Amino acid sequence: MDHYLDTIWLKIVAGVQALVRLMDALVSPLHLLGPTVIIFLLVFVTVCLTKLFKRLYTTQRYRALKKEFNHWSNVRKAAMNIEDREKGKVLAKNIDQAKLNKVYYDYFFEGFLNNILTTVLPILLMAAYINESYNPDKLSDRFGRSYLFKTPGWFGDPTPVGALLWFVVSLLAVHLLWMIARRLMKRDKQGRLTK
Known about the structure:
It is a single chain. By secondary structure, the chain is mainly alpha-helical. The chain is about 80% helix and about 5% strand. It has six helices and two strands. β1 (about 150) and β2 form a beta hairpin.
């Protein structure tokens, strides 16, 4: 059994190394732009791909749970809207205990797992790639310095910024830009509809 597990593990490691070599080959023409721009572009592409994955991939169970949750939520709202308030509260409580709570937690957990697969995992994989491919030693070999850039630090000493910190800052910046762009497009679309 250990032999089979070792064989599987070695195949996984070989697959990961092949993916890293492929990513290095794809990124190598961009080395003229510098590591800071490359990491920002990798983050931008990763965020775009995660948004696309999230839109395209949902499990059949997630869709069924969403439909069931919406159904029981609407039944609960109808129970709350009956004329006799006390009877409506009792009915809503029974609906919560009988179905809605269980369906909600199943729906939430399935959505959480879906989110891990479509959003968190690709971002963590890209962070691992950047951490490995742009560590201080490799930055020194490729670009002649062990950091991306320096920022003004405390007491006048400049602080070097590494690849992983820049990855996190870029990730936050890209998500912020994405949110602003969506709001601007939504506002523009509403402006066209009102004209």
